[in-house]
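Action item from last meeting closed. Structure (263 res):
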């Protein structure tokens, strides 16, 4: 089975720090002029967060959740030499493959939570919650893990970002399989309060269940070798995702009491 064909873009311009998040993400532009938020292999949280970001982002996009498209960001030695990235970043950066996600324009960097129930795409909230269960995202209930885009007269849209703490923590290992069937309940109350109806998760339960073993295997096998995920860790990650997918309905039904509008 061939690994998943992640989109890979060559970065050609350094545009400065985002000023957000512990990983020190930076703005960069690719050779086709598109701007990305890039996380380096040498970020302060460890190289494993690149794997977390890439795998989680690919799954979120498959589920058609509001998540900026992720790519593998290629940075060569020439760009490092002519830019001041390392000086601005404060540590040495190696040429090679890093993680990037599309920059969302006209977005609030620290959106007030009061805006959450005003966004136009609240219908995706059940999917986001199930996605966080599927990937054991341990950091959704945090001001820096979502953004709200302003469409001026057209209203606001909610986006999920920053998935470095998926799979429980940035430095997970093969013991992740012991967490199959669990949820850390890390969710935004404002999102939970928007869940309404007698079977509000049904559409996204079916979408999660449609994630095939083959698709998950292709994603995990496509993680760049230089990101140092061992064969045994790859197998454990596949088994974890298979297990969470198969138990997704059972897990969410255990926590019906967290959703006052689920009737």
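Sequence:
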């Amino acid at each position: 089975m061939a690994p998943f064909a992640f989109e890979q873009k060559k970065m050609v311009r350094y545009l400065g720090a985002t000023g957000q998040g512990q990983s020190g993400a930076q703005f960069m532009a690719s050779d086709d002029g598109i701007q990305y938020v890039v996380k380096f292999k040498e970020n302060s949280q460890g190289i494993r967060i690149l794997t977390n970001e890439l795998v989680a982002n690919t799954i979120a996009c498959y589920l058609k959740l509001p998540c900026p498209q992720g790519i593998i960001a290629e940075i060569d030695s020439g760009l490092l030499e002519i830019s001041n990235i390392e000086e601005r970043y404060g540590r040495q950066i190696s040429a090679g493959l890093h993680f990037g996600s599309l920059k969302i324009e006209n977005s609030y960097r620290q959106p007030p939570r009061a805006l959450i129930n005003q966004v136009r795409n609240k219908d995706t909230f059940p999917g986001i919650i199930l996605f966080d269960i599927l990937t054991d995202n341990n950091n959704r209930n945090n001001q820096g893990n979502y953004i709200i885009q302003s469409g001026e007269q057209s209203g606001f849209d909610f986006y999920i970002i920053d998935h470095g703490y998926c799979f429980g923590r940035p430095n997970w290992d093969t013991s992740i399989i012991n967490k199959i069937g669990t949820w850390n309940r890390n969710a935004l109350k404002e999102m939970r309060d928007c869940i309404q109806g007698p079977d509000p998760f049904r559409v996204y339960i079916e979408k999660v269940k449609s994630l095939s073993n083959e698709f998950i295997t292709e994603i995990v096998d496509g993680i760049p070798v230089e990101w140092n995920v061992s064969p045994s860790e790859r197998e454990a990650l596949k088994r974890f995702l298979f297990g969470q997918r198969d138990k997704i309905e059972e897990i969410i039904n255990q926590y019906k009491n967290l959703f006052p509008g689920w009737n």
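Note appended to the action item: Residues 8-102 form one domain.
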